[in-house]
Amino acid sequence: MTDTARARASRRNAQKSTGPKTAAGKAAVARNARRHGLTLPVRADPILSREVETLARAIETSATGRPADAHGHAHACEAAEAMVDLRRVREAKLPLVAALDADPRHAAGPLRELGRLDRYERRALWRRKLAIRAFAAAVTAPPTPCQNLAPRHPEKRSRSERVSKDGPSEQAGPPHGSRGDAVRRSSP
Amino acid sequence: MSGSPDLPVPAASPPPVDPACFGRAPLVPGDDRAAYEALQAQFSAALKPRDVVEHGWVRESADLFWERLRLRRQRAAMMTACADEGMQRLLKGLHVQDFFSLSKRWAARELAAVGQVDALLDAVGLGMDHVMAQTLRHLVGEIERIERMIASNAARQAAIVREIDFYRRQFGADVRRVVQAAEQVHEAEFAVVAPPLAPAAPQSAEAAA
Fold this sequence. Notes:
The complex is a heterodimer of chains A (188) and B (209). With 188 residues, chain A is mainly α. Chain A is built from eight helices and no strands. Chain A has a domain at 36-140. In chain A, helix 3 (46-64) crosses helix 4 and helix 4 (70-102) runs antiparallel to helix 5 (108-140). Residues 145-152 and 154-188 of chain A have low confidence and may be disordered. Chain B is built from seven helices and no strands. Chain B starts with 32 loop residues before the first helix and ends with a helix.
């Protein structure tokens, strides 16, 4: 068959089938490239998002006896997110482990897949470790007088305040600086 | 008087933790659920988790331990299941004519084949160790992968122990410091202020009386 005839035949065949027509078929092919869905963040799934919120609240109340402030809650949410991620990875690993258990003669495929999933688990473990440490630090650190006095957003200070503290300034725009600068400036 | 609202106070009796929030048990068909639950209970009794975070670690510790046992079992199962491959290689090296069918029949434990193979191996001074060595040679990639998984599993368990220790030290020390600070504030609030002493009577008046 010449290239032209082949191309014509291909075009004819393509006219016959251009993919699924029904909604169910379209939904099925939309998942063709999906392997395990672990690259999707937990927050992208509304059900998992609710679970994260519940788990975060449970972490806070069980650790301190009451809900944490916004800062502590953010870290609790990060920890809960990592915990839910970890759970997802481990659940994705279970069928592979079962396959390995059922047929030890053909272990190469499941073992390779388990190795791939291990990367996600490692990342989730790392995130959980950092988030739990940050949460513990956030809920146990008492507010220091320096932190209380320091303005949260130095650029939002009123002009009169700026003039009284720093002296008259010709700077028109907001001062550039991090929160650390603000703390240093306000502390004696 | 209640504690200062800014200071976290650990829960006196932590609320019960829902095990469902840590996912389902990592059991596959053939696993002994009772043994897994006994292991969980053992870990829980030893580590005495106090909050959700610690419950998560305890659960994970037991899961990792369980997985490690299973990986070791799977490694042994792979070696046993593929022993015929090792036998095949060994018989091929000995220039046995029907090495393929003989190794298959040996793996199926046919008495005649087992006797024949034993005689062949005895004649050249080989045994089951050599068969397993050939099997390992055949499976070295898979076995290495499992070994790595076992090592990584053990490292994760050690990391969890370190994290529990760090969390308890950090949390314990900080909560202790915060509670002490709160107590000092309370003591200062309730400090007994002694009344000012009355001025002493002049000595000269007493002497005059």
